[in-house]
User: Fold these one by one.
Assistant:
Number 1:
Amino acid sequence: MLMNSTTARKSPIFQHDIETINQMINKYPKLRRMLLLQDVLSQFQTKIKGDPMKGTNLNWDDEAIVEPIINDLQRCSRILKQPIATLLNPSIFDQEALLFMCEQLEKVLNQKISRVRKLKEFLKIEKSLRLNIIELVNAALKNDIRFFKDSGKRLRLRYELLFFIGSALIQSCLKEIASKVTKSFLEEWWEPICPICGRRPHVAKLKDKKRYLLCTFCGAEYLADQFLCVNCGNVDPYALKFLYPLKQQGLRIDFCEKCKHYIKVIEEERLEFSIPYGLEDTSTVILDIIATQKGLIRD
């Protein structure tokens, strides 16, 4: 069971994230909504940081237990070419712990986003078993948007809110997995979607003449083809373009002329300032503004 919020340890890393995000919100008010959601997740992470169970019935600090599980997940992922999250058995999550996490998330949402009024209603619905929270988590692991749309319609809740809740509940577990998989697994994946959570990246890093895609949800950093659109899979180099914004040394925007989606690229060897790990997306929001002005699309 999760420790309560009064005993959970505050992480200086997450505290720095929160401060940086708040600075960005003040600096870029047009991106307030996107940044506010990141702020909510960072605040939520501080509340559950000290729990080694991460909403599951496994102690992720116990290497003797976790290592064989990670090895088996990597092996199955390689064979099936599926992200690890889709292979997780949702029964590893503890329902009571998830409910506690929901309550902590509710507190942050109500504090940060005053217009969110439906979360208490959602908790009541879950407790009355009209919606099983394990099913919600399983849908988040599988990125099953149809489940969230159907559940949202049935419960008269915005499906985006349900998806956000489900994502928040699995994030700390997936971050643990991403930190424990082998380097070879991440470098041999060679697919545009994240090998851990299956989501599409918004940021890439260019180092040693290689492109690494960075999942800002679970933190996985994995090798990928430089000439590949992570949205539509286009590999035509003549339809893959890039922008070098003025006064943004070491930053660029890669985009696809076919689908108009873009990804932000950090060229580490040319970068003139340090970007803290975990804040790559937040620290490069100026690129989102430029890309939007150019008519490009971010998922």
Note: Strands lie at 203-207, 210-214, 221-224, 240-243, 251-256, 262-267.
Number 2:
Amino acid sequence: MQARTTAMPQDDTPRLFCFGLGYSARALAAMLKDEGWRIAGTCRDAGESAALAALGYEIYRFDDKAALAGTTHLLSSVPPGPGGDPVLERHGGAIACLPDLRWAGYLSTTGVYGDRKGGWVDEASPLRPTGPRGQRRRAAEAAWGALGPPMHLFRLAGIYGPGRNALETVRRGGARRIVKPGQVFSRIHIDDIAAVLRASIKTPAPGAVYNVCDDEAAPPQDVITFACGLLAVAPPPCIAFADAELSDMARSFYRDNKRVSNRRIKSDLGVTLRWPTYRDGLRGLLDSG
């Protein structure tokens, strides 16, 4: 995609640049744009890029060296590959030299903690990822952290929100209740991700790490059961994990079983979750249509 050329205004308007203007980054971008920020970033999908450009976002090719000019705040949601973090590989030097950068954030995952057999983890817990994706995330976190100020790390739980939630899964007829005794997952609504990132931008703490999850880790089958209840449909039958036909990636999610503390986003950032449990979030999604 050709870079969209936009005259850079000579004022103090903050500029957020997002490597990967995807689901999570767009939630923050929309919030900040409403506050008068300039928004720029990369997007691989041509259709989505055109839609974002129509909203007034500055859309660039990933390899465009001029894309970062004027950036005051930076967010990366691009996952690492087998060869490392592509953003740092291509732009690490330029990011480190940005003269006006006030805040930077990297979106990681709670997968870096690995398996705790249902026990609790917080930001001080050792990182023990169990699979290659988690190990790559741990390495990417270290590489981003090595950039120094004004870097912040955000470890996101399972993301849901409009268009991506258990209600949609049930409506599409793809819901399954897979039961692995004792298994729980943490989740986070997209609205609350944006709120956490916005709070960090307002109260930066270079080097800080935040778990971004709601208040209640829960068994996945319970979420499907609740969604079915909201939609007044019968839940699908339970399937034992050992008998479930799952892709290797889907099966890998069940390898880790932990409860993630979100105390720090509340105590340090003053965040009050809009959707503190999956029940609140699903009810809100149903009410919003």
Note: The radius of gyration is 20 Å.
